[in-house]
Write a structure and sequence with these properties.
heterodimer; A: 289 residues; alpha/beta; Rossmann fold; six-stranded mixed sheet; 9 strands; globular; B: 307 residues
């Protein structure tokens, strides 16, 4: 294997990644959530994994973040195998899960301090580091308020501070702006963008908001039914659509998705989306190691 | 904006992106100020902290979990007060009555004195046995997943949670000791013995919270855990030496009591606080062994727990 194939020098490399959930015995009792995913996230870029609910985004993220065993295919995070070198990979990761997961019984500062502690930040610099993480997400003034009093956007930014306090090389965010109003969404993205520009960290994000993907991601992978349907910069993807379908003169990313996945992103979301996705998330979590 | 969760207010009718790309700032949200405020003081966020390795990892995680538990208690002491009511009533109503009854052979010491260590153990167990509910809540809220992506081995996470429950129980025990002292129970004030009491309460709570987390890992829902918790609390309590000597029990129940870690905890507490005859080495060995077993079982089931 060459070093490139091994994933050295790249932030994330997936080759032939597959994951099947078994929920019972017999025929039809398994779901292939991820079905042969190949992707490479270059160091320093913002990489967006796009797709409707149930496309396999979260499952792929969980394989990368050491939460799922990698049974088929290969995953490397900065050259480390998340299935075997869990601790090494976790030390490189900042992770923001789909749910709003700050502890409402603690202040913002205490929430961040917990993550400083579990990432072994020495006592001498803990206070300062926590303050810097809170400042980076614009929560300095609210730092000593209970997280239970925060708005949805503030909780998301607090979670971002929790992820940033350990100076991660790879920030992984699973639907970071789901359920937030447009102003809060902008706030979250501006924080990510500012920290990224200051630290040079790599960002891997899943979303089904096409406008966000268009504005904030350097490269995108469109995912549907566990497979990657298209991969490139937003401009490249649009150019491909223009080339293959001359009727589309100025395609949006929604048009791009429709072109490659053969269906609408929005329709899928409202019809079969929410509930099955929640159940899928639960099932995914059950394989946490 | 086709997938936006709500109709955008007028201020953000413009897509959120351009502000960042062009760096002009829209002034539409809190984030607008961030881009400029962030850069000067990000210094420490550029350097990852040095990893703790080897034996120091688990104590560090345990300390982190205990700190969080204490911080939560400091913010909301209601639980501490409400939980003090039941042991106080046990001592006051049950204890005072049975002291007059003199129906239970306690070997010459007042029944209230005999009862107090049992109530300390019982009140600690009652908290710990429902600790799994918190783990289930943490699973539902995503906190557990987030902790599992930190450099914290599963066993360290469970150990941390177990001893965090223990810290809570020690505070509880202090309250019961004070109430008992006010009711005139003659207890030791020897600091070494009191330290032993703290260790016994910590270990007992760690075991019962691991038992609870293990059950949580099997039954997976709050409601079922509540039901099972309530079902096993009664036999654990009455099937121990907390209220009466084991010698009074029928043979089969004596056997059950001998397999019940609560009995060893009560034996240790009674020996340390009141000075009754106790097999302290055996008591602490059983409590330690049970705790290790509990941590192992709960760690193994943590994967299921996060469903």
């Amino acid at each position: 294997m060459t070093s490139a194939e091994n994933g050295v020098g790249e932030a994330v490399v997936c080759r032939g990644l597959e994951y099947t959930f078994h929920h019972g015995r017999g025929k039809g009792a398994s779901t292939r959530a991820v079905d042969g995913v190949d992707l490479t996230v270059h160091t320093g870029e913002v990489f967006g994994l796009l797709g409707p609910n149930g496309a396999g985004k979260t499952t792929a993220i969980r394989a990368i973040t050491t939460l799922l065993p990698v049974r088929a295919g290969m995953v490397r995070v900065f050259g480390h195998d998340p299935a075997r070198q869990r601790m090494e990979v976790r030390r490189l990761l900042g992770y923001v899960p789909q749910q709003l997961s700050a502890d409402s019984g603690l202040t913002g500062r205490e929430n961040v301090a917990l993550f400083a502690r579990v990432f072994d930040v020495p006592h001498a610099e803990r206070r300062e580091r926590v303050s810097q993480a809170l400042a980076a997400v614009d929560l300095t003034d609210a730092a000593d308020r209970m997280a239970g009093t925060y708005s949805g956007g503030m909780v998301r930014r607090l979670e971002l501070a929790q992820a940033l306090v350990s100076a991660p090389r790879l920030l992984v965010m699973d639907e970071p702006t789901i359920g937030l109003d447009p102003i809060a969404r902008t706030g979250v993205w501006e924080c990510v963008d500012a920290v990224r520009r200051a630290t040079g960290m790599t960002v891997l994000v899943t979303t089904h908001y096409m406008d966000e993907a268009d504005w904030y991601c350097d490269r995108l992978a469109l995912m549907d039914h566990g497979r990657i349907r298209a991969l490139g910069t937003p401009e490249e993807l649009k150019a491909q659509v223009r080339e293959q379908d001359p009727q589309q003169t100025a395609p949006s990313l929604d048009d791009v998705f429709r072109h490659f996945a053969g269906r609408d992103l929005a329709r899928n979301e409202s019809s079969e989306g929410e509930f099955s996705d929640v159940r899928r998330t639960r099932r995914t979590a059950s394989r946490v190691r | 904006m086709s997938a936006a969760p709500a109709a955008p207010p007028p201020a953000s009718a413009e897509p959120p992106g351009p502000a960042v790309r062009t760096g002009t700032g829209t002034g539409t949200g809190a984030g607008a100020a961030t881009a400029t405020a962030v850069r000067p003081d990000l210094g420490l966020l550029l350097v990852p902290p040095r990893a703790r390795t080897g034996w120091r990892l688990v104590p560090a995680r345990v300390l982190a979990m205990c700190t969080v538990e204490l911080q939560k208690l400091r913010h909301d002491r209601t639980e501490l007060y409400t939980r003090a009511v039941q042991p106080a009533l046990w001592l006051l109503i049950f204890g005072e009555t049975f002291t007059r009854l003199k129906a239970i052979p306690t070997g010459g010491i007042p029944y209230l004195d005999y009862l107090a260590p049992g109530i300390i153990a019982q009140s600690a167990m009652f908290i710990a046995i429902f600790y799994g509910i918190m783990i289930i809540w943490e699973r539902d809220s995503g906190v557990l997943t987030k902790l599992l992506v930190t450099p914290t081995p599963r066993a360290a996470l469970v150990t941390g949670k177990a001893f965090a429950a223990g810290v809570k129980a020690v505070i509880q025990a202090v309250v019961v000791v004070v109430i008992a002292a006010l009711l005139g129970v003659a207890m030791t004030w020897n600091p070494l013995r009191l330290l032993g009491v703290v260790v016994a309460v910590l270990l007992g709570s760690a075991f019962f919270s691991c038992l609870s987390m293990t059950i949580a890992g099997i039954v997976l829902t709050r409601d079922r855990l509540m039901g099972i918790g309530q079902a096993i609390t009664m036999p654990l309590f009455f099937g121990s030496n907390a209220l009466y000597p084991v010698d009074l029990m029928p043979g089969w129940l004596q056997a059950v009591s001998r397999a019940n870690p609560l009995s060893y905890q009560v034996d240790a507490l009674r020996g340390l606080l009141i000075g009754t005859r106790a097999n302290l080495p055996l008591d602490f060995a059983v409590l330690t062994g049970a705790t290790v077993l509990g941590i192992t079982a709960a760690s193994a089931l943590l994967a299921r727990l996060a469903r």
